[in-house]
Amino acid sequence: MIVISDTTPIISLLKINRLDLLKKLFGSVQIPRGVFAELTDNERYSKEADVVKQSEFIKIVDEIDDNYVTLIRRSTGLDLGESQAIYLSDNNKADLLLMDELRGREVARLMGIRIMGTIGVLGLAYQETLLAREEIEEAIRILRGHGRHISDHLYNQLITMINQK
Fold it and tell me: What is the spatial distance between Cα 120 and Cα 87, in angstroms, rounded to a whole number?
């Protein structure tokens, strides 16, 4: 299974100290160099950067068609990391793209790329019995506390899914 990730899902999982879910759910996750830079270049997040650098299941991909990425950026207004993640997903026929940003998700969806966000990862982790309901509720509280926008609608969908199991 080929799984590509943008920056935000990784940051969100770092915030709740559950980056391990990516390894448990997908085995490995590929990120483009631009996403790696977003994750590791900010000195305020050196601790998180160290976790990413030491995560053997996160594979950095450098084979990027810069012209293709520039075209995505110019036509959509997406940032470098999002554009590279979409490029990798399209070029490598990825099974899944992990992305939270709405505009990036819309672009990827129009391109026929299968998408999952952080909430989807938490829901899948619950289905695979890697997280309990209480852990998910705590994760949502932490993410909202760190300024992550999680709509009530999306939150309620997740809770409904959990309650059905």
Answer: 21
